[in-house]
Amino acid sequence: MKKKKTTNAGLMSPSTETVILVRNKISNGAGENSLILKDRPSHSLLPKGIDLSIPFKGRVLRKGLILKDRPSYSLLRKGLTGLIFNHEILACGAHLKNTFALTKENRVIISDRLKNLGNLESLNSFEKGIERFKRLFNIEPLIIAHDLHPEYLSTKYAKSIKAQNPNLKIVAIQHHHAHIASCLIDNQIGNRKVIGVAFDGTGFGEDGNIWGAEFLIADYADSQRIAHLEYIPLPGGEQAIKEPWRMAATYLYQAYGEDFLDLDLAFTQHLDKYKWAILKKMMQQKINCPLTSSMGRLFDAVSSLLGIRDVISYEGQAAIELEKAIGKISDSHSQAPSYKYTIREKNSIFIIEPKDIITGIVQDLNHALDAGAISFKFHHTVVEMIVDICKIIRQRFGLKEVALSGGVFQNAFLSNRAFSRLKEEGFKVYIHHRVPANDAGISLGQAIIAQAKLGKS
Question: In terms of C-beta density within 10 A (0-12 exposed, 13-18 middle, 19 or more buried), how is residue 451 classed?
Fold first, then answer.
């Protein structure tokens, strides 16, 4: 059988006895260097990670930072970032793909990824992990940073610690600001304002809505929202994440109104009309339909609309399979086809309206364009959207540096092309190398922002 070539390389370090046995079997035939991180100690609270590098300098999708039980990550170099930790800080991280971080002197010590903080068991692991790290590194935080979301268990944990010790300072940090700060410090950038592009699935916004396609002007201390994807209802809340068909139907409803049910599409033919009627009523009465600007949900909608994935069995599945559908399509980046979209300004914020993207996809489906070609065209549209907004911000604010962060940029096809197109347009572009672009990097960003905001006081 012919071997399939790949440009991606991955590494999984052994974490269980079974994996170690497999590794030893492989090593006997392949030599001692076939696996790099051998005999790494295991700890039940700190599961081992997977290092997966994709083009550029080896960007990390999931990072395990424990080597011989020393999870040290010295990111700060004196005189370069201008950030010296005057006080020890605990950063509680995100809700999903949670990591926590502790600071000591000029180091940021990041845990391996823990479970999603969605239940008591995961919260107990989170708390035990923090206490263990505090003992290991002799750290007693004076500042606690947490996510802006008031209902996250990590937020409640931070507030409970503050209640026990009134002398502690706590600071709430917006999710996407933390993403950008994480990318900046990963690249050893000094404390200066840049254009931050943060694309992901979910992040609690300053207006109480769910953000996820954000263009910011940010440094380590502050961020300002400049542009975002138009808000759309998330029907059923978290259930819409698990069932991408809900987002596809919602985007079609936004673009065509009631008439979308008459479209000659495989999606509308197979749509459960009874379920849709319930969702529509929920949106009309604003019952469990929070507003979102999430780029992740737009990817989900397109995936379902193309017949790729209506219901997911793991996080990000719809978007992953949408990228995979592209296959091997070559392009010259700037000359690749894309869909139209509208950018309008409201109250000094630029709103990106994707209605024409959805109607363009419907037209291509009616012309029997295959899913791979449509996926390629959609991806390139998002790239051009990034470039257009960054050019607007450069023209208005004079900024020429762009940081790309958030889980959507784990999409190699999207991130590679965004990187290239922005460079073509004269931007200096920063991407993640040692810290994941997804929520596992949030704790690092929180720690840096907390220091910039409160560390000198």
Answer: buried
Question: How many helices and strands (H and E) does the chain possess?
Answer: 14, 16
pTM recorded for the entire structure: 0.85
Mean pLDDT of the chain: 84
Report helix, strand or coil for 226.
strand
Residue pair 60/433 in contact by the 8 Å Cβ criterion? yes
User: Would the CA dihedral through 413, 418, 419, 421 be positive or negative?
Assistant: positive
CATH code given to domain 232-430: 3.30.420.40
**Which amino acid is it at 147?**
D
Q: Name the nearest CA neighbour of 341 among 353, 328, 326, 323.
A: 353
Strand blocks (E) in 267-320: 291-292
Sorted by where each begins, the domain ranges of the chain are 43-187+438-457, 232-430
Fold match, 43-187+438-457 / 232-430: yes
Q: 72 Cβ partners below 8 Å, 6+ apart? A: 65, 107, 109
Contact at 8 Å (CB) between 66 and 109?
Answer: no
CB atoms within 10 A of CB 328: 5
Q: What tokens were used for 179?
A: 């993403």
**How far is Cα 358 from Cα 339, in angstroms, rounded to an integer?**
9
Q: Is the dihedral of CA 221, 115, 66, 89 positive or negative?
A: positive
Tokens for 320?
Answer: 């992953």
- State the DSSP code for 97: S
Cα 439 to Cα 435: distance, rounded to the nearest angstrom: 10
Paired with 343 in beta bridges are 352
DSSP letter (8 states) at residue 240: H
**Per CATH, which fold does 43-187+438-457 belong to?**
Nucleotidyltransferase; domain 5 (3.30.420)
Give the Å distances, CA to CA, from 443 to 110, 130, 180, 187, 231. 8, 12, 12, 16, 27
141-199 pLDDT, tens per residue?
Answer: 999 999 999 989 999 999 999 999 999 999 999 999 999 999 999 999 989 999 999 99
Q: What digits encode the pLDDT tens for the residues 251-260?
A: 999 999 999 9
Distance CA 22, CA 350 (A): 53
Closest CA to 244 of 170, 180, 321: 321
Query: How far does Cα 257 stand from its chain's mean position?
Result: 31
Residue 392 tokens read as 């607007």
- Asked whether 88 and 141 are in contact (CB, 8 A), the reply is yes
